[in-house]
Design brief:
Bound molecules: zinc ion
CATH topology of the largest domain: Rossmann fold
CATH superfamily of the largest domain: TPP-binding domain
CATH class of the largest domain: Alpha Beta
Helix content: 25-40%
CATH architecture of the largest domain: 3-Layer(aba) Sandwich
Strand content: 5-15%
Low-confidence stretches: none
Length: 263
Amino acid sequence: MSSTVEAVVSLVGGAKRIVVFTGAGISAESGIPTFRDPLTGIWARQDPEKLETANAFREDAALVWGWYLWRRAQVAQAVPNAAHQAIAQLTWTRDVTVITQNIDDLHERAGAVDVIHLHGSLEQPKCFACHRTPTAFSFEEPIASEDMRIEPPRCPRCRGKLRPGVVWFGEELPAVAWKKAVLATKNCDVLLSIGTSGVVFPAAEIPTMALRAGAYVVHINPVQVVQPSCRELCLVGRATEIVPALVFLMRPSTGAQVERPVP
Ligand SMILES: [Zn+2]
């Protein structure tokens, strides 16, 4: 075991409050595209930056809704990976807040409790007109992925068009989620930053905020993303290998199996 791994195990093992901060890298290991690579198939000629704006929705709501149905279909095919599962396991036994920049539901499907979505969720559309989130919305299944343009459903309250409940370019983060994330970050002892390149602001401020509040920050990424300061540690490699190994090394010495709590 390397000395950095040993240090991280002892830090996380001794922490009272832990924040797990995740980005696109962890979903990519489940096969969800990050859209930094060129698109393939029917979307090859589309630019995500142009589809993911309020203006694009105003101009062609059916194109934007179709794009999100396609993305949701990709997420539905993906399964939570070993890193999602290890994080979930940590939330069952420790005081852990998961803050994710991802709009998929892989943390929830792995069984994680207390997940904050900083950039919204594919699962919760909201009204473009009145901004409300319909309480009982269910997507029509199955989704025909070759249908590029699909008219969005209507808001049950005002008949406005429903839009994806995700944060688009130029939009602010959901206020409640951001407030909860800041509170958890300022109160944690250790923050694990996993699969995030730290370029999307203001979400990227989260690790810095933890450092300023006196916490340790552990970066887990395939490449080293920061020059670590004195309370920062870097573990370079795949999240699906590093995170399960850390959680395994922190397991109770009784060797008892950790059971998923009954909701
Ligand atoms: Zn409405």
